[in-house]
Amino acid sequence: xxxxxxxxxxxxxxxxxxxxxxxxxxxxxxxxxxxxxxxxxxxxxxxxxxxxxxxxxxxxxxxxxxxxxxxxxxxxxxxxxxxxxxxxxxxxxxxxxxxxxxxxxxxxxxxxxxxxxxxxxxxxxxxxxxxxxxxxxxxxxxxxxxxxxxxxxxxxxxxxxxxxxxxxxxxxxxxxxxxxxxxxxxxxxxxxxxxxxxxxxxxxxxxxxxxxxxxxxxxxxxxxxxxxxxxxxxxxxxxxxxxxxxxxxxxxxxxxxxxxxxxxxxxxxxxxxxxxxxxxxxxxxxxxxxxxxxxxxxxxxxxxxxxxxxxxxxxxxxxxxxxxxxxxxxxxxxxxxxxxxxxxxxxxxxxxxxxxxxxxxxxxxxxxxxxxxxxxxxxxxxxxxxxxxxxxxxxxxxxxxxxxxxxxxxxxxxxxxxxxxxxxxxxxxxxxxxxxxxxxxxxxxxxxxxxxxxxxxxxxxxxxxxxxxxxxxxxxxxxxxxxxxxxxxxxxxxxxxx
Length: 498
Fold this sequence. Notes:
This protein is an alpha/beta fold. It has 2 domains: 13-268, Aldehyde Dehydrogenase, Chain A, domain 1, CATH 3.40.605.10; 273-459, 3-Layer(aba) Sandwich (Aldehyde Dehydrogenase, Chain A, domain 2), CATH 3.40.309. The protein has 15 helices and 21 strands. The strands form 6 sheets. The chain has a 7-stranded mixed beta sheet, with helices on both faces. Strands 9-8-7-10-11 form a 5-stranded parallel beta sheet, sandwiched between helices. A 3-stranded antiparallel beta sheet has the order 5-6-21, with no helix packed on it. α6 links the parallel β7 and β8 (187-191). The protein is globular. The model has no long low-confidence stretch (mean pLDDT 97).
């Protein structure tokens, strides 16, 4: 990806033409009501664009378009080679438009353009390519049956998938839903977060250019209580796939029960522990501990926001993470030298600061704890570390979704595991040790969808991502993700009747 300077990114940003209308049935259209919402650059507090605010009427049009496309079969019944070619072409177009996509996400939600360019965009392109390659690897089955019978088990696309994605990784999270759903033949109605809709609209345009038939992918920007709710309640949506807060995830379960009992797949955040034992490589662990909480401004569902450190090395380790945190000082998201970007909005900064202020009463503030760069008009928060965080306190159990690290000391392995598992979430966990037996023993007892040993937040296209408890039960990535978007059909043929 491009290694632009601050001046180059700034100049490029001034020339952008934002796509602000919904994308339905292969064309950009305004919301039927004419309503819009304001997209604000959180690094400056200035308005970027006014985006179509879709409601139940627009969602209904989009769902009907998706259903027509599915029933026509131009995508749902297309050959494997055709679907592979289109998704491969989309992957190539994402790379061709990499700088614009990276800049859209950076401007829209405050993340570093450097990270968008180096990680998010190429990762999105690679994911579409990976699922394109997977299309002819997903096989059907012949089940055992008595002589004279043939029992076939086939995987059938569900139909219309509603995808609701969060603002923290606008492009990548959309791809995590779209790539497997499209690969197996579904039509999709995508509702991006209102804080970060711009890259999804460009992605829809690129998908159309790549040859995706009209109506197979529709994008309906809008507010959660209108567009999101309408999608969840729609009787002709066969499946909802959602990443976001647990509160909203529970709404989608209710919507399914109130409507057509559609399938609902949830990934709803976490409060991930990072266990550091005394025999670990402390410098490597310190560097990764900071990465695990300060990357993307801590706005990561699997962020390692709870640091549990063995007592005998706690003071030394705390010194190391304070030193490492200096690499994450916030700055202009378009500046390649910045260590963090802005939080997604002034409202979110206020919410995070509420956690910080309340934590001062029962924990020890080590560094940070104050907004910075206020003269820019942006929502910036310095890396913040609290020590002596009391188990069971708000900072120990609730998801902050910001660059705030909660440090707690443990004395024994059993105590470490008790603290780590004392959460209603179960998305991710990390542990650091040079003892192989301990690594296996502790990993087995950690209740988390992914356990990273001697690293943090490990993932790949080949492994499923998701959690337990109130982190939800959906799985993204890997071939397992396609299971969410197909139904198993049994066709039983009895041929020994004469």
